[in-house]
Amino acid sequence: MAKRRPLAAAVVLVLLAAAGCGAWLRWRSGDEAAALGAWTYVPMAELSVQGAKPNLVLLSSDGERFVAVGRAGPPGGGSVIASWTSTDGRSWREGNLGAVARTRGAAMVTGLARVEGGFVAVGARLSSGAAQTFTGSAAWTSADGVVWKAIGTPPGDPFTTFSRPTLMSDGVHAYSRMGTSTWWRLGPDGAWRPFTPPGTRNCEQTYREQATRPGLFLYGYCGNPPQAALFTLDSTGRVHDRSQALGDRISVVETAGARGGTMIAAGYRQLPPDDPAAQAAGPPPDGPDDQGPPFGAAYARSADGGATWSPARTMPGTGPTDHPQVGRFTALGSAFLMSGLVEREGTAVPVLWTSGDDGETWRLHRLPGFAEGGSLGDPAEAGGRVVIPALVGIDPLVTAGVFVSTGD
To answer: Is residue 25 predicted with pLDDT exceeding 60?
Structure first.
C-alpha cells in the first residue's frame, strides 16, 4: 500500500464546519468512537477579535492566558506576522509583535515556546520584493505575549543551507537550530549558547519536543529497520536516555510526555504476522522505508520515570482496516490527551484520544462539527480551559477555527 501521510506534512485538506459529522456518518454505533461533548467548535468568523484576524498555528500559554503568533492578513491585503492573546480562547487581542518585526524589514515566524519569564518566538528575515528569500534568523521575547522585543541571534553557519528555524523549550530554556546545523540554547539571561543534542550519527533528524514544565522530550528513531529514540532533558540540560528501556515496544516514537513519574511514548510498532491488522497495515508514516514490514499505531506507559515500560498496546477504537496516526501527547489537568488522524477507506479524519487513568487506557473521540479532512494544532491550556486550533492548508497553514473545552 502507499505510504500513509505523516501528521507533520500538513497536506491540503478541507474543513467543513457546517457539514457536521462528515465521514463519521460511516462510523456507526458499533464503532468505539464516541462524540466528545465537552468541546465546542468555534469558526474563525465567530471569534471576537481586536486587531488583525488571528492565525493560531503557533499556540502556547502561561497557564493564565493563551498566546499565539503567526501570519496575519491585514486590511488592504498582504501578509505580515503578528501576535495575539486570549483568556478564554474566543476573544483575541493583537499584540505588538508585527510592529516590532517590521522595524527590521520583512520576516516570518516559525516557532513559539513558553520559557522562564515569558515567551520566545523565532523566525526568519526575508528579502524585499516579490521573490522573497531567507536572509537570516530572527528572535523575539515577551513577558506577557502582548509586548514583544527583538533579541540577538547566534552567528550563522556558513557551511550549511539556511532553513526555517525550529524552536523547543524545557519550560526554562529555549532550544533552536536557528536555521543552521548548530543547536543553540537560550537561557534566562538572554544569551544563546551552543548545545549538543543527544543521539548518534545513526539517528534520523526526526526529533520533536514535548515540554513538561520543566523538562523536555526528544524523540524519533534510529537506523533501518527503525529503533526507538527517546531522551529526556531536565531543566539543567542533563540528558537521560530512555531508548534502551523502551526497547522494541515502539519502533518509531511520534510523541512522548509525562506527568509526575508517569511517562507515555506513542508511535508505531512492528506488527506480528498473525495480527489481523498486519494484513492492511503499511510502514510507519515517518519511518525510513516505504516497503518495510507492517507497522501499527501503539503506545507504551512507564510508571517509574522511564526505567521500565509496559508492553505496547494498540491505539484503541479502530478497526483492522483503519490506519490511526498519532500526533501530539499533552497532559491537561487530570487527563491525558493525544491528537491524531484515522484513515478509513482513503479518508483521513482528525480525532482525539483521551485517558483519565494516567495513560493506562485510552478512548477514541470524534470532534463535533469537524468533518473529514483538516488537521489539529497543538493544544494549550489556560485558566482551566483548553484550546485546540483547527487547521487547513499547506504553506501557509491557516486557522479555520478553534475547539474550546466546555467542561469535563
So the answer is: no
Q: Please tell me whether residues 244 and 154 are part of one structural domain.
A: no
Q: Residue 310 maps to which CATH number?
A: 2.120.10.10
Give the model's confidence band at 274: pLDDT under 50 very low, under 70 low, under 90 confident, else very high.
low
Q: What is the largest CA-CA distance in the chain?
A: 62
Q: Which three cell numbers stand for residue 385?
A: 480551559
CA atoms within 13 A on the CB side of 128: 3
| Cα 108–Cα 109–Cα 111 angle in degrees, nearest 5 | 155
pLDDT of res. 69? 94
Which SS3 state, helix, strand or coil, does residue 36 take? coil
Residues 382 and 364 occupy one common structural domain: no
H/E segment holding residue 300: strand 295-302
Do 101 and 154 fall within a single domain? yes
Residue 204 lies in a domain: no
Q: How far apart, in whole angstroms, are the C-alpha atoms of residue 290 and residue 347?
A: 20
Do residues 48 and 114 share a domain? yes
